[in-house]
Structures are given as C-alpha cells and as structure tokens.
Amino acid sequence: MKKLILLFFIINSGVLLAQTVAEPVYSITITQYPFEYYQKQAQAWAQEVQNEGSSAQDWFYYFTAARMQNMLAPDENTKRYDMDEIVQNISTKFPNSFEDYYVQFWKKNFTPEGIAFLKKAHAFAPDRYEAWTGLMTHAELERDTATIRQLSERILHHPLYSPGITHWNYNVLMSVEQNAILLTHGDNETYPIWLLQYVQGIRTDVSVVNASLIMVEDYRNSYFTELGLPSFEQTISDYDGNWEAFTEAIIKHILDYAEQPVYLGIAGLPQIREKYPDQFYLTGLAFRYSKNQIDHVAMMRNNFENRFLLDQLRVNLQPDFSSSVVKHMNQHYIPCLGVLYKHYKISGEISKAQQTAALLIDIAQKSGRMAEIQDYLTRYE
Fold it and tell me: Cα(20)–Cα(13) distance, rounded to whole angstroms?
C-alpha cells in the first residue's frame, strides 16, 4: 500500500512539474518566442482565469497569449481561440476597467468607436504603455505631431523601452539619403523611427510612410499633398477588395511620382521588391528604388564605415527586455554584411574583410544561421 501511495505521489509530482506556469505574456513586438510558448501560455492562462479571484490583469495576459497563438498558428488545423468570447468575458467581469476599454478598442480597431475606447483606456490608466502606440497611430493619422512627440518621450523612459530596436532603426535612417521617403511596414520599423525623429531630432528630413497607415484615404491624401505627390484616386473596390493589390498600387504610385529618393525598409514588403527586382538596391538596412543602375555597394560601404552605430552589435552594455526581438531584427544585417565581405575580399582589404566576417559570425551564432554563413564565407577564402 505504501508503495502504491509513493508511486501515486511520484507520478502526480511529475505531472505538476511538467505543467506550464502562467507568466506575464507580451506582444511579439516586445518579446518573441516560438509558437509553442504562446500555445502553452494560452492554455495555462485559460486555466488560471477559471480560478476564483482571477484579476483583470490575469484575463489580459490570457487575451494576449490567445491572440499571439492565433497570429502564429502554423496551419488551419491548429486550435484558434475565440477572441470575441474572451473580450466579452473581460467586459462582463471587469466593466469600465483599462482592460475592458483596451480590448474593446482592439475589437473595433481605429473606427471612431474604437478610438473612443482607446482614449478611455488611456484616461483610466495613463501609465499603461499598451495604449501608447495606438494613440501614436491615431495622432499620426491626424498629423498631430505634438501628441506623437509627447508619447515618444514617455516610451523612451519606460522600462520596456528597447535600446536595441532603437539602435537598429537608427541605422535604417542612416541607410537613406537626405530628404528621402522611407516606406516602412511593421510596428518595430515605424514607432522607433518616430521616437528618434521627435525626441532625438535625428533625421527629421526623412518622411516616413507606413504601408498600413497609407491605406487610410484621408490620411493618404493629406500626406501625399505634403510630399508633393498627386492624389491616388482609386479605392479598394477598384481592386475587388484585394488589400495586397491595393497596397502595391499605392506604393507603385509613390515610386512613379516621387521626386525625392524613395527607400524601402529591409524588414517589410518583400513582395514589392520581388515585383521590381532590378530597381531596388541594398544600401544597408534599406533598399533604394531607382530605375537607373546605382553604385549601391559604395553607398553601403559609406553607411557602414561612417554613419552606422555598430558597437551595440558587438557588446551589449545595458539590459534589453526585447532582446529576443532584437536578435531576430539583427539578422537583417546579414545581406549587407555579406555583400561588404565579398567586396573587401575582392578589393584586397583583408583587415576589413576579417572584421566584417567576425560580425557576420557573431550575428549568425545568435540567430542559429551559422552553417549558412560559414558556407558563404568559405566561398571567398
């Protein structure tokens, strides 16, 4: 009997130890883990919120974990969480809370009703960072630079502020010419650039055009006027509701009519580069659009040798909550470093080739791409 009791204890202890402990979960723009992490956390928080006394914050972590799982689900057979049900539960259990207002904003997006909920969330808890980027987006749509500057200041001094992501975006800005138009895509390729421009006063000559925001007609018309571009008269209905085709058409309009140099951030919109493979030239962490051939290697070399901040790639002197995201973003240095390594080897600049190879290897080791990079380097030995 004692043996049976002991065996039961051992088995159940193993089960308890194997269970995932629910922990704070953040958007993939802040921390980035494999799909399985969000899958386990969504399950753990689903159990946690069933407990009596679960808080609004518990439900918010459940909401975030479930949303990340849905976003990263590898195939259609993977379980999807009913986000409407989670939102309804939060609103029912914790009415008029920050969490209630925020999830209602998430559900209704940047509609007038959604913006009203976002503003309520911020008014209820002005120190909750989750609402800040949404408010920045709304301010940009309104061309309200004062609010963007104010929110950028707050983000800069928040504990979750990522120096690594901001350094990366500094080098994006240093990849482009004076008075350029820079086409960006995701959160981590747009908000940090605004922070650099509005708070630090860095590269304020660059006009940032976010590919998602430019889909909003009133904003697009206003911004195009500022940029000296003719208005884009077509609507989504002209493309049978195909948002990807509509986006591509708007960007093509910019490429065709802009008198300023136009650049595409390296991290987004690969389908645009694929459509015009002979007209985009890598200059660092951005691609320069040009119908005529340009010496992009010389531009890239000048950017790396004279304009980029690279120390943070070699030595990390301060903690970064978003280190997992930074590690992923730093992989975008690999294409330009590969080009520069080849250039230095061919031109006989052995010392610079060795320094570039060391940086490539360091990034490759951190991102799990060592075999691929080692194979590339051996071609030019």
Answer: 13
CB contact set of 41 (below 8 Å; sequence gap of 6+) = 20, 22, 23, 25, 61, 65
Cα end-to-end distance, the chain, whole Å? 70
Q: Residue 68's closest CA among 99, 94, 37, 91?
A: 37
Which residues is 286 bridged to in the sheet? 265
Joined tokens for residue 228: 């000296």
Q: CA 169, CA 163: separation in Å to the nearest integer? A: 10
Secondary structure string (H, E, C) spanning 237-256: HHHCCCHHHHHHHHHHHHHH
Burial status of residue 156 (CB atoms within 10 A of its CB: 0-12, 13-18, 19 or more): middle
Joined together, the tokens standing for residue 129 give 């960072």
- Residue recorded with tokens 């500057």: 149
* pLDDT for res 16: 41
What residues does 262 pair with on adjacent strands? 181
pLDDT tens, 9-41? 444 544 444 578 999 999 999 999 999 999 999
3-class state of residue 357 by DSSP: helix
E strands, the chain, in order = 181-184, 207-210, 262-265, 280-282, 286-289
This prediction has a pTM of 0.92
Q: Read off the pLDDT of residues 145-187 as tens digits, 9 standing for 90 and up.
A: 999 999 999 999 998 999 999 999 999 999 999 999 999 999 9
* Length of the chain (residues): 381
